[in-house]
Amino acid sequence: MDSMHSRVRDALSGTLVWDNHGCMPLRPDDERFLPQLERYRRSGMKIVGLNVAFDAVPWEQTFRMLATFRHWLRRHPKQYRLVETVADLARPDRRLAVFFDIEGTSALNGQLSLVELYRDLGVRWMSMAYNRNNLVGGGCQDADKGLTKFGRAVVTEMERVGMTACCSHTGHRTTMDVMRHATKPVIFSHSNPLALWKHKRNIRDEAIRACAETGGVVGVNGIGMFLGANDNRSATVARHVDYVVQLVGIDHVGIGLDYVFDMQELDDYIKAHPETFPPEEGYAAGLRIVAPEQLPEIAAELLKLGYRVSDVRKVLGGNFLRVAKATWPKRLPARG
User: Fold this and answer.
1) What is the CA radius of gyration of the chain?
2) Which residues, 6 or more positions from 175, have their beta carbon under 8 angstroms from its beta carbon?
3) CATH of domain 2-327
4) Would the pTM count as exceeding 0.85?
5) Distances, alpha carbon 335 to alpha carbons 74, 112, 120, 157, in Å
6) pLDDT one-digit tens code per residue, 89-140
7) CB 3.0 to 4.6 Å from 188: which of 170, 180, 218, 327, for a disulfide?
8) What Cα–Cα distance (Å) separates residue 101 from each residue in 49, 98, 104, 187, 283?
9) Where are the domains of the chain?
10) Contact indicator for 123, 134 with CB cutoff of 8 Å
């Protein structure tokens, strides 16, 4: 047991531990939950992606959430720092590094130039759709007709400005179109293999292979209904990680727990938006979610499966760091 604890500590301390997707309440000027970001840091994480919008909320609110989160983080510089460039990721620092993400492209409101503005405000990945169709393409729980002309322009613009394209929550046809159109790594920021658990939100082997072929990474999701029968055990997370590894290799899997800090807000969203969260697909109150504090357990479960410490480091952050180096900006334009 002592040996296992030592190996887990070695895995956690030897890389920039990275949770690619976390969900604070999306209520502008409500900062009550933000001190809970400390839970990531106490769990051994160094970098976290914080969601600022998804397609079911008004697109204008994206800017208000960015303002709220940025303002709070700037007021707590001893504990947290905003990630702007790849160079920020390499700096040794005891603070938790935070970047932002957007689920779905409705936040663009059909305006391509907003991609670069969101990049300037700290957004580092954006998914194509959130369950339902939008102007870019199809959602995973809708009649997916594929990536649109505007969608192709969005992917190209994201690559130009330094934002990673993501296909979580996106329909399979649109996903495969994105993989074919992209010239840089594409990610599934927080998605699980369909082969292990049948749910429309999970992704086919074909999509996982296509993601790996771009050089991308599948971030395994911690929502219980996508892992199994509302299953949030660390061993189950490790099993999903292992499935992706066996399919496409150790370089193409990471962690995107999708932890929701205000479960009442999530329950209210599910109830208010049955078109986005269909009850017949299992969306209901009381979802179990893998917590940041389970990270050491997940590392231990991977080690029990026979993974080397160096492999666990890749899963815990090394792979997403590689994608960031390939897709994020090396520097930002000077602000005049």
Assistant:
1) 18
2) 128, 167, 203, 207, 210
3) 3.20.20.140
4) yes
5) 18, 21, 10, 20
6) 876 678 999 999 999 999 999 999 999 999 999 999 999 999 999 999 999 9
7) 218
8) 6, 10, 10, 12, 23
9) 2-327
10) no
